[in-house]
Every structure is written in C-alpha cells, then in structure tokens.
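Fig. S4 source data, part A: sequence.
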Amino acid sequence: MIRTLLREVKEYKRASVITPLFMILEVLMEMMIPFLMASIIDDGVNAGDLGHIYRVGGIMVAAAFIGLLAGMAGGRYGAKASAGLAKNLRETMFNHIQTFSFANIDKYSTAGLVTRLTTDVTNVQNAYQMTLRMFTRAPASLLCAMIMAFRINRKLSNIYLAAVLILGVLLLLIMSHATRYFQQAFPKYDDMNASVQENVSAIRVVKAYVREEQETVRFRKASENIYRIFMKAECNLVYNAPLMQFTVYACILLISWTGAKMIAASALTTGELMSLLAYCMNILMSLMMLSMVFVMISMSMASIRRISEVLNENSDIRNPDSPVREVADGSIEFRNVDFAYRRDSETPVLKDVNLKIRSGEMIGIIGGTGSAKTSLVNLLSRLYDVTGGEVLVGGKNVKEYDMEALRNQVSVVLQNNVLFSGSILDNLRWGNREATEEECMEACRQACADEFIKRFPEGYDTHIEQGGSNVSGGQRQRLCIARALLKKPKVLILDDSTSAVDTATDARIRQAFREEIPDTTKLIIAQRIASVKDADRIIVMEDGRVDGFGTHEELLRENDIYREVYESQTSGGGDFDEKAGD
C-alpha cells in the first residue's frame, strides 16, 4: 500500500531525499547553541574573558544562521516533494480511472472517486510533508538532545529519560484511541459529497418540487456525522497538551531543584544547568512533534487505503497482445451470448442471445423496462464483456480489437445525453477533433440540429453550459447524435436517444440516416413503435432474451408482444410498459 504511493514520488525523489538532510542539519545547529551558551556563561562571563564571549558568540550566530537557512531549505523542498507527490497521485488516479470498464466504475460512487482525488490526496500530501520534515527533525532532535544532556550530566539526564518513557506511553494510548475515529471519518466524506453533488446537479428538480428544506436537512445530517466523529477524535487528542505541559514543568522543577543542589555542591556549573534546561525543552517538544506526526499519519492511513484501492483496481477489459485496428464493416453477430453485471450473479441479464445483422441495416430494438436493451448494445463497444458466448463486429470477436479503434467505429449515443461546457463546435468535435466546421454543420443537418442552431445569435459558437443545461432535452439529444455521426462509424447506436424529439423530427432523422449513411449499421432503441417500424428489421427483447426478430409486418403476424404493444400505442396511446385498455 505504501509502496504503491511512493511510486508516485517520481521526479521529486531528489527533493524527498534533500529535505530530511536539511532538517538534520538544522537540528545539529540547534543542538550546538545550548552547549555554546554554557561555554559563554562558564568560561566567558564567570571567568571575565570577553574575547571568549565574542568568539563563542560569533560561532553561535553562525550556527543559528546556518540552522535558519537549513530550516528554510527543508521547508521549501518538503513543500515541493509533497505537492509533487499529490500532483502525481491525482494524475495517476485520474488516468487510471479512464482505463476502467463500466464494471470497474460500478464499484465506486462518483462522490467516492471525487473524495479520493481531493480530500484523500490532500491528507496524504500533508502527511508526507510532515514525515519528511517533522518525522526526521523530531527523532533527530530528541536523540541529539539526549546525547548532549547525558554528556553534560548523567544523573539529571535520567529525569529526561523517565519523562520521555512515561510521556511516550501515554501519547501512544491517546493516539490509538483517536486513530479509530479518524479511520471512520473519511468514508463519511463520500456521503456528504454525494449530497452536495446530487443537490447541485439536480438543483432545478429540487426547486421545482420545493425540496430545499429536505435537502438542507440531508446535508446537515451528513455534515454532523463528520463533526461527531472528529469531535470524538479531538476529545482524545486534547489530553496531549495538558500532559505535555505537566511533564515539561515537572522536569523543569526537578532539574532546577536537583541542579541547584549540585551547583551548591560544586558538582554542576550554572552554564551546564542552563544547557540542560534548554535540552529539556528540546526533548519534550520533539515528543510533541512526534505525536502530531503520528496523528497525521493515522488520519492519512485511511486515505492511503482508499487511494490504493483505486490504483490497484485492474480494468476488467484490456487490449489483446496483437490487437486488430481496422473494423472491416458494420456486420454484427451474437453467438450464444450470456451476460451478467457481476460474475458471481446467479441470474444473467442476457441469456442465450443469437443474432445476425448485416452491414448497413437499420435495426430497431424495443422492449419493456429492464428487458436488457441497453445491456445488449453495450457489449458491441466492449463497455462490458460477455460472461458467455461471443460478440462479433465486422466478422471478428470484439475482444480481438484495439479498444480505441473499436469504439471509434462503434459510436454510441447513450440514454443520458451529456454535453460539456464550451461552444457547440467544441462539443461536436468530441466526435472528431479534426472535423472542419463544414463537417460539423453537415452532421448537424443529418441530426436535424442545424435548424435550431441557426436560430441562436452566435450560431455554432453558442456557449453550452455544463451538462447542456441551457438547451432543451430534444436539442441536447440532436447535438449528441451529430457528435456521434462525426466519428463516421461503421455502427451507430441510438439508445432511446430521440425520446425527447417530436415524431416528425424523429422521422426526418431516420430518413437522413437511411439516405446519408447507408453503409453504416444503425441500431435504434426506442419505446415508440413509430420510431422503429420503418427499420429493416426489429428486435423484440423480453426478460433478457430475444423474443422476436423480423420486419414490422412479420412481427405483427407472429409476435404476440409486439402486436400487443402496437395495438396499445395505435389505439389509445401509451408506451411499451402499458397494457391496452389499462
């Protein structure tokens, strides 16, 4: 887990190595100052040697200045290394997520992935910086101070040693209790982020249904959950400061009292006592810094585990060793295909599907909600892989193709039509980044989108808000169809992508497909029979199986489900899921 993260240090290894060296240098300079101060007092002030005071004072100033520079350099390189690690982690995680199949993505919530990329990475960044700086500085300072203290006076130094052992055990107990709460806290961020994301993305629905108060209550609960967990953790940590202060003052009193008696007995000098008191503060403050480092590391361990989960997640779908990079044509074949979203699922979504579709055909697909229409077409571009049988496109198993080449030739307009912030042209060029403006306009004519684009004052340069919130549902669908057409695919899949379009426009789009892209295989999923009855053939899906496959006339004669739906929609309206007369 730690090794996974450390691989992302990459070009910041030098900064990561230099930072502890500078911190050690800073500690060495700091440790010299109490020792030099004792020499000034004992050999300079008490002896009346002004030259010694100047010489040693100059060395103290030089040591302090070098320590200052070392501390500044350690801070600079530590910030560079930790910020660089965070940058690399985010880039690696984001790039790795792009390789996920839909099956991999289904394991994580959107809010969970966002939290891992933001809050969790920030926790790791802070912990890494503290590890490079404080986790080096505090033990080095503690060790050097103890050595110097024992060098001055072993008897008084035993007071430090006892205090360090007692305080170390107490701090360890406090942190072990706090750590458990920190580990519970970060998954709660997912719930809070999910609440924010849903509320902001669906703000129009929230306002339309006057649900602001309920959403506020929901967010408050998620926020209070985090608050309560952190309060429990912090209530444990508040004992750190009182324990530290009690130990510091107890050590100072014991050392002062014992040291004064030793000075009176000429067993200790005044300068040595001053040095011991300074080392006392160094030792105990080092312990406090170590406790802070351990708390930060404890907080970050939960984040490290969550980040490692994403980085170690292997995509279910990979390119073959020698992939095919050309799709010959738009022919499609399903051979004994079974499919389930989970490999261990007892009930498959698709069961024993066998289909043959010729290149250039227009195929309609209808079926009730949950009949696996979308699951069927998702297998063509390897958004998911079959669990049994095989799917062929252009005469080859889809698993033999380079995924980028396959998805460029099997263009999908999904149910959820998504546009991105930018101009209309920017959105269209998602289909083909090299497309000319004339090619974009031609695709929009085929998708019947040019008619409303021309009415915009800025035409094709009209700015689209995030998610396409400033255009209607039908306009958004037509822009997404045009975007797919720009890929000039061998297979075009419309997954209920004209549901928000009026029937006349729907008919014009299908007519344009037939005339303008006759060699492209077109799969149209729809709820309205009017949208598919002119197709070359129609697939009727029922409970994950192909219940019928033929022309409109053949299905009317031979397929009970199709005939019932047709009569329902032509006699009294209604959609696929409504029975006639209901």
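Fig. S4 source data, part B ends here. The longest strand covers residues 332-339.
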